[in-house]
Amino acid sequence: MTAVAVEDDPYLLPLPGVGTLVVPPERVCASHAHLNSCYSHGSWCLAPLIENPSQHLDWLHWRHCPSVLVEEIKLAAWCLINGRLRPTFVQQRGKKGGNGSRLSEQLGARTVHFTVGEWTRLARWLAKRGVTSLAECDTATLHEYAKLLAVERPEKLKPGHTKESRGRHEVLADLVALSRLWAFDQLSARPCGIGMPPWEAVGVDDYLPAEDGEEGVENSREPLSPATMGPLLIWALRFIDDLAEDIFAAWAETRCITETAEANTTNKDGLAALHAFLRPSLAGKAPLPASTTKSSPTLARQYLAARTGASLSQVGTAADTYELMKLAAERPGPCPLDTPVTGTIAGRPWRESIDMNETPELMQYLGTAAFIVCAYLTGMRPEEVLGLRAGCCPDPEPEDDGSIPRHLIRSHKYKGVLDREGNHLPGGAERDVPWVAITPVVNAIRVLERIVEPGALLFDSGIHHLRRTVSSTGSLRTSSLGRRIKKFVAWVNNEAVRLGLASEIIPPDPHGAVGTSRFRRSLAWHIARQPGGLIALAIQYGHMRTAFADTESSGGYALRGRSGIHDVLAVETALATAETATDLRDRFAGGEGVSGPSARRALLTAASAPRFEGRQVKADFARKYLARDGAVLYDNPHALLLCLYKHDRALCAKDSKVQAPALDRCVPGCANTVRTDQHAAKLRQKADWIEDQVAHTPHELGKRLRANADQLRSWADEHDRTRVTP
């Protein structure tokens, strides 16, 4: 195949030659330039299009494409990577045209991989029908194929297979991929002539399954249960705050042992010390220092060399002479380090000594713990956490008045980052608004900065794979971290059993594995659902909703001005308020009384409240739902009341423009208050508990406590007098 001249059309591409690079130089990311493939290769690496350090390096393997169609699909794929759709074509369709699909002029590696994969599936379907050229795939054929996509990808349909409808967003993605095949074919110097997809003319709705509510939702992943997330976070923070120094010291000694063993030279003193060290094991049944491998214990040669001063060759000779390998397998012993143990768990040292063999795993668990802390206590997406670099969170300079500002994290976002023309930016872009880091997150970042070099990725895969050298560039992958979290949980549970801490065992989550993508949803769930609402994590985990930014400008429940974690917060809060209204409706219907200035208004609101059980909710719907001033019912267990929030009546919002209640500063006597019989009972219980403390409290403080108890009882009595019942 040779290049030929084409007409003077800047968008029309020449035919590639056998040695033509797959990714053009202007699109190659420098870190992966050496992986660029040639057109004639049987597999194409898409790594040159990737700058996101946590993204998997995808390949296009042409052996998966039918031989009769592979050359046409291959040429179309090259055009997809090298070409740009004409701006007039994109503008006619708009960013999101009437058919609901989106076409950018150029695509990122992930979309290229998916798109060519869909083309390959189409080619296999066509080949089974005897089609030998894409020119035979006309509009009618694409219509037939698209109808099958609404049920299942045709190649997956088997005799007796139960057909289950696919989600709209899945089918839409497939149809957009097929539209790209038609669009980019028109840029080729040798177009195959595939027919125009019918949905380009009549719209896409007829080819999509019925609306299922899944597209664009923020609650498509289940949050981690509090029973799982609580001890998981406790152990992650424990690693960062209590165990990190011991682990770093042990790792430094382990590396020193390795270096010393490699540097030792053959000498008589070392040989004599080696024999003296081995004498008890050879004379009796004392264990030998052993290293653990995947198969069985083996002699810890480096440990023996470093401890005795013998060379590795002398240790090897002794091992052959005395069959030490066999003895080590039969009687494996520890390799204790001299590093003193200073960290504690439950008030006592967590180890008598650290074994050299466990230091790589402990370093891995330390990195995993740091990821858990950063991912959960910031609300970042996993790929944003994995894209952080050393130096991303510098210590702030003191203000003029001597106060210390919050730590800020400068990070890159990758999801949906486009240039002005709507094309994917492989390197992402720095966030306009930095993340605010609370102390546990800062500590976790400082730990990671001690593991990697200055300016390096905090989760650099070459550094965090401690036992082996890896060829991949960038950061750890989310799949790798998922496995590491699973191992971390297993280690923690074994340690909890060993230390007798049954209450700190991490139970399995009812919805499956602790995936990296579930931390964002879990954070929003805890903020919206835990007692105290806004201050829930400030009390329990040291986190505040206001840490995302100033409360007045971005901390509101119905925030619209900022995307990201606030979308997830809006969804969780909408779900929580809807459940609160449903609960009030059910309690009232069951005979429970309701009181307060907003009691009747709350009952009307509850009567018309939607039920969301089992539903997935979009962020835009959640924001609109929460923006209904005077029609959203918030639960405030901390104050033992419900709040039917109406801004102009809210005593907590006198000087605020935020259209949401400040549940951390609820004011008695507010016109938005609602109470139930259950609240009245809890008010009396709390009053009784306070009075029990009076007997053990100094006189003046006791008087204030008794007055507080009397106030609680008066609110309960007022409820009884004014309650409304069915």
Explained architecture:
It contains 24 helices and 15 strands. The protein is of the alpha+beta class and 726 residues long. The strands form 6 sheets. It has a 4-stranded antiparallel β-sheet with strand order 12-15-14-13, with helices on both faces. A 3-stranded mixed β-sheet has the order 4-3-5. A hairpin with a 6-residue loop joins strand 3 (288-291) and strand 4 (298-299). Helix 3 crosses helix 5 (168-185), helix 7 crosses helix 9 and helix 17 crosses helix 20. The longest helix has 38 residues, at 226-263. The radius of gyration is 32 Å and the shape is flat.
Question: What's the rounded overall pLDDT mean?
Answer: 82
Total strand count, please? Answer: 15
Query: How many alpha or pi helices?
Result: 24
Shape: flat
Structural class comes to: alpha+beta
Uncertain runs are 1-6, 95-101, 157-163, 212-219, 531-563
Percent helix:
40-55%
What are its keywords?
single chain; 726 residues; alpha+beta; 4-stranded antiparallel sheet; 3-stranded mixed sheet; 24 helices; 6% strand; flat; disordered N terminus
Please write out the topology:
Layout: E1 43-45, E2 59-61, H1 70-82, H2 87-93, H3 109-128, H4 139-149, H5 168-185, H6 199-202, H7 226-263, H8 268-283, E3 288-291, E4 298-299, H9 301-308, H10 312-322, H11 324-330, E5 332-333, E6 344-345, E7 348-349, H12 359-378, H13 382-386, E8 407-409, E9 412-413, E10 429-430, E11 435-437, H14 439-451, H15 461-464, H16 478-498, H17 518-529, H18 536-540, H19 551-554, H20 565-589, E12 594-595, H21 599-607, H22 619-626, E13 632-636, E14 641-645, E15 673-676, H23 677-694, H24 699-722
Parallel strand pairs: 3-5
Antiparallel strand pairs: 1-2, 3-4, 6-7, 8-11, 9-10, 12-15, 13-14, 14-15
Helix pairs in contact: 1-3, 1-5, 3-5, 7-9, 7-12, 7-14, 8-9, 8-10, 9-10, 12-14, 12-16, 12-17, 17-20, 20-21, 20-22, 23-24
